[in-house]
Amino acid sequence: MAKVNVSIPQGTRDFNAETVRKRNYIFNTIRKVFEIYGFQPLETPSMENLETLMGKYGEEGDKLIFKILNNGLDNPDKHLQAKAEFEKVLEGKNNKSITERALRYDLTIPFARYVAMNHGQLTFPFKRYQIQPVWRADRPQKGRYREFYQCDADVVGSNSLLNEVELTNIYATVFKKLGIDVEIRINSRKILAALAEVCGGADKMIDITIAIDKLDKIGLEKVKDELTARGLNAEQILTIEKYLSITGSNEDKLTAISSLFSNSELGNKGIDEIKHVLDNAKSLTQNAERTIQNSNSDDHDVLLTTDVSRIHDSHLVIDFTLARGLNYYTGIIFEIKAIGVQMGSIGGGGRYDDLTGLFGVPNIPGVGISFGVDRIYDVMEELKLFPEAVQSGTKVLFFNLGKAESKIAFDLMQLLREKEIACEMYHETTKFDKQFKYAEKKNIPYIIIIGSKELEENNCVIKHLTTSTQQTIAMNEITNYIFE
RNA sequence: GAGAUUGUAGCUCAGUUGGUUAGAGCGCUAGUUUGUGGCACUAGAGGUCGGGGGUUCGAGACCCCUCAUUCUCCCCA
């Protein structure tokens, strides 16, 4: 047979058993915390109407949306028309007769669409969480994939800053459970807007935010260059420089920013918001610890991290350079940075005042956060944070030593399975050597040997491979044996 | 969209200024060993050197094109 070159599309991945288990550990942890905070699950389709997505993520974002080619373009009756329409696509315009659907780019916009569609039936404030893959036609590189999962939690229909506080707590709790040391960076779009206002041009806000967002990467001088390039004058840049030079503790920063924006109503509003969240999330670490300790300890999937030594502090840090690319944010914004690892943000979010307004249903404010599971996975892998116990596959392998023997083994296996002990039998009768190697390779900790001798004496040999110890017990005692 | 990087056995990689039949380790298969694995020893299978073109007496190596990979910028999770 000819060898075909098999591959998968750029930026996508297969996940083997080990990886899936580790990923599920992250998913389960996040899901559990969302549920504890009163969020309800929601799933939306992989594809949306293209017009639902276009124009929501900025110019760059639009380019990264995966568009789906319409079916039936080869219909001979419509050839001429299709060709003409395609010409328009070549000019960069989207055309419904060529493409009218696209893959989900994030979870927030589909959620807004859902709320707009169903606002008559929903009870507000509406709190939902959503864990699904999203797709971006981006160039893959470290921590960046074309298909990746997001885990979002949003509250819509409430202006209360309590939501921001709760979401901050969710971040702290999840990362504490996972054992990742993080910095929760916080800022307010109102403060950024005030800066633009003070600099004499509210319309310059996007230019300013894009430039200052790069501060920690390219340095002050380059930021100033970029601001000049974006049409800011020397006086305006001086103001921005003053703004950027604010450092110190959260308290220091608040004091400094207050004096800078003493005359700006918008600025003061933003400062008050940050203060409120900071004050109420003060005992973040303690809160998170309590949540972890109080949750159901039978839940092995999630609560593998109650080991205190693995609990780290979450730091809530004001970062005035934080801007976030998505332009629908209007209030508090968040971004999560893992400490001790070179990796882009592993989560982010913020408040948006009128997201559903884009879909014709105004006046539903909301706030949400998102976890980037794939990057969280990479971080945990790099820092070796996955607990051993996540890797539990088959627990017991029954040796296959003949027809009569395996028949008994088969029955015993069913008994163990009823006890929820994962077990399997070697697929054919063969020599010990092979069966041992199979167990070893699949990391199966126990083997059970039932051969002609055991069959006669009505017992079986249970061998623990990691310790190389074994004991013989009666067959009817097998369900009482404790496989650890 | 721009720039770099790498591509040789299932995996990780050697392969000299171009020179006979392209190597190693691990893994795989079989045996030493019809009922106790991991070690050791022995034997074996497996490669049109990413693909196409060119230079040359001769190319895995040099040149051009192409595909793929990984990374950086842009942007983002």
Task: Describe the protein.
It is built from 17 helices and 16 strands. It has 484 residues and is of the alpha+beta class. It folds into two domains: 328 residues, BirA Bifunctional Protein, domain 2; 87 residues, Anticodon-binding domain (Rossmann fold, 3-Layer(aba) Sandwich). Strands 1-5-6-11-10-9-7-8 form an eight-stranded mixed β-sheet. A five-stranded mixed β-sheet has the order 13-12-14-15-16. A three-stranded antiparallel β-sheet has the order 2-4-3. A hairpin with an 8-residue loop joins strand 9 and strand 10. The longest helix has 20 residues. The protein is globular and about 95 Å long. It binds one RNA strand of 77 nucleotides through helix 3, strand 6, strand 11, helix 14 and helix 16.
Summed up:
The chain contains 17 helices and 16 strands.
Give the class-level CATH name of the largest domain: Alpha Beta
Could you say which overall geometry the principal axes of the C-alpha atoms support?
A: globular
**Cα-atom Rg, whole angstroms?**
28 Å
Considering DSSP H and I runs of 4 or more, what fraction of the residues is helical?
Answer: 40-55%
Q: How many H/I helices?
A: 17
* CATH-level-2 architecture of the largest domain: 2-Layer Sandwich
Main beta sheet: strand number and arrangement?
Answer: 8 strands, mixed
Structural class: alpha+beta
Strand coverage percent: 15-25%
CATH superfamily of the largest domain: Bira Bifunctional Protein, Domain 2
CATH topology of the largest domain: BirA Bifunctional Protein, domain 2
Overall residue-averaged pLDDT value: 85
Question: Residue ranges: pLDDT <50 for 5 or more in a row?
Answer: 296-313
- Spatial order of the strands forming the largest sheet: 1-5-6-11-10-9-7-8
First-to-last CA distance: 46 Å
What is the number of domains? 2
The beta-strand count equals 16
